[in-house]
Amino acid sequence: MKAIYGLFPDPDSAQCAVDELRRTGVDDASITVITSQPFEEYEFSRRDKRTWLFWIAAGGGVLGLGAGLILAYVTETLWPIVTGGMPIFAWWPNIIVLFELTMLGAIIATVLSLLITTELPTKKVKLYDPAVSQGKILVAVEEPPDDALPKLQRVLREAKTVR
Amino acid sequence: MDIYAEQKINADLLRPLRRTSGWFYLLVLMLGGIILLGGGAWFYQISNGLAVAGLRWPIFWAFYITNFVFWIGISHAGTLISAILRLVNASWRRPVTRCAEVITVFALMIGALFPIIHLGRPWLFFWLIPYPSERQIWPNLRSPLAWDFFAISTYLTGSTLFLLLPIIPDFALMRDQMTGWRKKIYRVLALGWRGTTKQWHRLEAAMQIMAIAIVPVAISVHTIVSFDFSMSPVPMWHSTVFGPYFVAGAIFSGIAALMVAMAILRKVLHLEEYLHPVHFQNLGKLLLLMSLLWGYFTFVERLTTWYGNSSAEMAVFWETQTGAYAPLFWTMVFCNFVIPFPILAIKRLRTITGCVIASSLIVVGMWLERFLIIVPSLARKHLPYSWGSYRPQPVEIMITVATFAAMVLLYALFAKAVPIISVWELKVGAPVLSPEEEEERRALWRTRP
């Protein structure tokens, strides 16, 4: 992969760099920002915020509920024992099993969709610099056109880049 | 926060992972030895039968089930407290959450082990799992023991994921900071985390959802553990107050265990700059509230029983107030309420030392509470022909001690492998300092050895 990037000492200069890159006509989707912590208060951090994760979790919960219902019905009818005068398929105690499996479904769906949407785990070589873990902020343009390289280089240098 | 402050946090929190003193190996050796002895005691019990454990008719639930309830209660320290603090966005939670979440995972593992230890043929524990076996025998889902399986499995899965997800960015940090074989391991564990804005947003959204989901699951777990008792017509068990009573007791013992763990970590790993007295103050206030709540539930439960004046229940009641179990009962009251209440209520006494004293007593008191819920009721059932007594045997005591050692060992090993304070979360919550304060902080860092 081809990319040009700058490392910035603080989020203010990283924000300046992102703004400058936009001003020079770089598409938002081509700009990558990598940080060692989320900077919620900065605009560059608010990209990609929209997510379906809450709905996916709810869907997982519904699936878990369905699985619980099938399990409870099949289990109780395959081995029908009368317990304490309760019906073979008794709703009150089954609510407990249904609740647990609903929550389990929601939790597993959340984690799976997190891993899928963030492309984890991955073995692919992706843009990264270990200096990020020391607190630097990486602002990059991925797959830049060759003729734009000098201009992008200048923009990143002028925005207080450290390298 | 500037780069120097970030690097200082990295250095401070990764220090325990980089350096290992001889004391650590000695501790591992000692705890490992105790665990081996516990394993030997269990093997002895498997070979000779449960009779060696002092379990005699009519008391078939004693130390093991006490430990089961106790450890499941301790597990409420972490995920539940961490999830609540996350949801209310309490910024002081940041250095506390991981210390707490780790307790949950290990305490649940240990707690879940006890029903298996309590089995005559523990290798058949999987019969509790619903699966289409050739025997065509399915577990009875109307049994509270089957509910335990579902509740504990869900809570353990949820808590483990709740602990692991926010560790991924810290694994990435360690991948970048460590060298040699450890770097290779952390590279695998980091799963290729980079820290893009998308990854941060998804992680935070996932943590928010998990926090919402885990709170009702945690409450359900201890309610279901209470159902193991309250669904039986045993004197002083068949009570509607048992669900909330158990949940309150679990949170109470959980916070106490967390404070003891935090104080030890603070001292041993030199985390004084991160685990401040204010964390103990705040958790101390929470512990005070839970102490009051525990006192309230204990009073309500006892008063209702006494007012009902049912002969079977009164037999158990008097046995714990003035009979054979009275010394344990009053020790419990002193440990859970009489001593901790003034320590936690008076601000001058609510120091780190005060909180540790109160918490240690509460951990002891809550173990006694679990024992006193189980044994006296089984010893004084409805008809005098089914009365009996219980005396713990060395096998049970050894296995109990071994599980405490296992908890400490697992915690110590975890703290050697993963920063016990979430590094990235701490950075997010770090205060924005004035230039003068920043300079002072930097100067302090420069002078550090």
Tell me about this structure.
The complex is a heterodimer of chains A (163) and B (449). By secondary structure, chain A is mainly alpha-helical. Chain A contains four helices and three strands. Chain A has helices spanning 11-23, 53-78, 91-117, 149-158, and strands at residues 3-8, 31-34, 137-142. Chain B is an all-alpha fold. Chain B has one domain (3-129, 141-435): Up-down Bundle (Formate dehydrogenase/DMSO reductase fold). In chain B, 71% of the residues lie in helices and 0% in strands. In chain B, α3 runs antiparallel to α15 and α4 (79-87) crosses α9. Classes of the chains: A mainly alpha (163), B mainly alpha (449). At the A-B interface, β2, α2 and α3 of A face α1, α6, α7, α9 and α17 of B.
Structure classification of chain A: mainly alpha
Main sheet characteristics of chain A: 3 strands, antiparallel
Any idea how many domains of chain B? 1
The average pLDDT value of chain A, as a whole number, equals: 89
Shape, principal axes of CA atoms of chain B: globular
- Work out the helix count of chain A: 4
Strand order of the largest sheet of chain A: 1-3-2
CATH architecture annotation of chain B: Up-down Bundle
